[in-house]
Write a structure and sequence with these properties.
The chain is of the alpha/beta class and 222 residues long. It has one domain: Aldolase class I (TIM Barrel, Alpha-Beta Barrel). It contains 10 helices and 8 strands. The two termini are 12 Å apart. The structure holds SN-glycerol-3-phosphate. The site of SN-glycerol-3-phosphate (G3P) has 15 residues, from strand 8 and helix 9.
């Protein structure tokens, strides 16, 4: 494995918009360059282009539609996020669930444009199903722990272990992230020691008084 990926989803938190999004991206860029760990950020669509333009860290969309460019009012196409500078996109986040057909078309659209797909699922069974579609990453996040401040690494390390095994049994090339409640270097280390390629997280960084300090702690045990 190269470097684990720490992917920070800004969701639609007020603390993750506009100037705050820039401040978090700047802190992430600094900590990534100090530590050598890959830190990505998934801002709202509005901030996608400015952040990808100003910062060197990978910037992800929070969702993408698999449809082609054309008459699709209100949809977010892969072409649109690519031209905004995105490195990839979350797909099927717990707060933006999709049908199986939509997940497959989003993964395919991202692959056609050489963008990274991160498919989110709730457990190892859904994770194995997602792996069958050949995304770059599957991210397992138990929904009940999302935003809870209770870390999946500590509350349910078994689901991480089972998910890594289930995903790799289907497709060993698919990388695995885990998330929900991740907040410290210790949480990240447990996740990586259990075989993941990194973590997906939000509130502990986005809502922090000093997001840079939290990011520094997150990479501290790698
Ligand atoms: O996308 C990351 C997420 O759903 C986990 O959120 O706030 O528990 O880190 P949080």
């Amino acid at each position: 494995m190269l470097s684990p990926l720490i992917l920070v989803n800004l969701k639609t938190y007020r603390e993750g918009m506009g100037n705050r999004a820039h401040m978090i991206a700047q802190a992430a860029e600094l900590v990534a360059s100090e530590s050598g760990v890959t830190i990505g950020i998934a801002p709202s669509y509005i901030d996608l282009h400015p952040l990808s333009h100003h910062f060197s860290i990978p910037v992800y969309a929070q969702h993408v539609d698999g449809c082609e460019p054309g008459a699709n009012t209100g949809h977010i196409t892969v072409d649109a996020i690519k031209s905004a500078g995105a490195a990839g996109s979350l797909v099927n986040h717990s707060e933006r669930r999709l049908s199986l057909a939509d997940i497959e078309s989003s993964i395919r659209g991202l692959a056609v444009h050489n963008l990274i797909s991160v498919v989110c699922t709730n457990n190892e069974l859904a994770g194995a199903g997602a792996a069958a579609m050949g995304p770059d990453f599957v991210a397992i996040e138990p929904p009940e722990l999302i935003g809870s401040g209770v870390s999946v690494s500590k509350a349910n390390p078994d689901i991480i272990r089972r998910s890594v095994a289930a995903v790799h049994a289907v497709n060993p090339r698919v990388k695995v992230l885990t998330g929900a409640g991740i907040q410290s270097g210790e949480c990240v280390k447990i996740a990586v020691d259990l075989g993941t390629d990194g973590v997906l997280l939000a509130s502990s960084v986005v809502k922090a008084k000093d997001p840079g300090a939290v990011l520094r702690d997150l990479v501290s045990k790698l």
